């Protein structure tokens, strides 16, 4: 089952790359607690160095933190994973799936000048980013702190057709309460943070361990 999209009888979009966005209704109430818990942990624990250039990254044990705000985040994470795994099912005419997955998550805190280098999340199926806080934006720096998703087709930019964005990157502005999900193999980076305050996010790796589409006529 593919996620190719038919535009009309003669034209289809192939090699589709899903990018899901989700904004939990209770995000504003939960984010205050998430911000407090993450900054308290930053003060207590040394950071981990991965793709981050500067800033602080926690150990990938955030899902085990025993706070009610983390429990709410776990629910949001399950929501987006189930939502993306429902796409092939709906193409097959079903609204039911069997799904199990494992996940690791960690917190990120960035301040002025901090950024994330281009990277992927190998060995996983999905990458998820959730924004807890974004700081105060600077209109003169519209790319500051934006996440950039790169076109995964390596030759796409060699002969971009007029009117098409082949090879162009997609940038998304951070927004408190926004959750993004995309394939873990998709190259991405974060532009240098140039605003005041701090940008706080939670990143997660997701691996699907059991999956099946349940036929619509199954008992």
Q: What can you tell me about this protein's structure?
A:
The chain has 219 residues and is of the alpha+beta class. The protein has one domain (18-151, 159-213): Jelly Rolls. Helix content is 19%, strand content 31%. It has helices at 27-44, 68-91, and strands at 5-6, 12-13, 20-22, 52-53, 56-57, 97-110, 115-119, 126-133, 147-149, 170-172, 179-183, 188-190, 199-213. Strands 3-11-8-13-6-5 form a six-stranded antiparallel beta sheet. Strands 4-7-12-9-10 form a five-stranded antiparallel beta sheet, with no helix packed on it. Strand 1 and strand 2 form a beta hairpin. The longest helix is centred in the middle third of the chain and has 24 residues, at 68-91. The protein is globular, with a radius of gyration of 19 Å.
The level 1 CATH classification is Mainly Beta
Number of discrete domains: 1
Largest sheet: 6 strands, antiparallel
CATH architecture: Sandwich
Tally of individual helices: 2
Write the element-wise H/E pattern from the N-terminal end onward.
EEEHEEHEEEEEEEE
CATH homologous superfamily placement? q2cbj1_9rhob like domain
Task: Quote the beta fraction.
Answer: 25-35%
Structural Rg: 19 Å
Enter the CATH topology name.
Jelly Rolls
DSSP summary, beta strand count: 13
Identify the strand order in the major beta sheet. 3-11-8-13-6-5
The helix content is: 10-25%
Mean pLDDT: 93
Q: How would you classify the helix and strand content by structural class?
A: alpha+beta
Low-confidence stretches: none
